[in-house]
Amino acid sequence: MPDAGPANSPTDAEIYHTLRSQIEFEDGLITQRLSWCVAAQAFLFSAYAITLNAPSVAASATFAEQQKLLHHIVPLVGVASCMLVYLSVVAGVLAQVRLRRFFARHLPAERAAEYPPIQGVLETRALGLSAPLGLPLMFVGVWIFLFIRGLP
User: Fold this and answer.
1) Dist. CA 72–CA 48, nearest whole Å
2) Which residues pair with 75 in a beta bridge?
3) pLDDT digits (tens, 9 = 90+) for 33-59
4) Treating both helix axes as pointing N-terminal to C-terminal, what angle do 61-106 and 12-53 enclose, rounded to 10 degrees?
5) SS3 73
């Protein structure tokens, strides 16, 4: 007779569903973070475009100086916000990796095979992470390009 373990041990199904819900939670956070990134970048690109389209001769020297300052600060804020979002997405991905490892340790492969993959297969996970991991880096590249091009 196999050892059933402690009387209050979770069943395989409970382990599966608990870990699956945790992975889905982390996936939802990653999606929210990517949405924040895109929304913030849209706002910052709009602000950057406004600084470019403002009259070159401002009403006063103070405004001209502020416009020049904003022209340089907006890309820096864009890079900083992208990097913060990128780090938080990486944290979510690492949390999912740890949850999958926990699942593998607590549910042997032969018993885990009775359930759908806890988070798809490697190929679909990698392709699914291309936007959350790629978009912030793409925006960073664009902001760096614009910042360098905007230097006198």
Assistant:
1) 9
2) none
3) 999 999 999 999 999 998 888 776 656
4) 170
5) helix
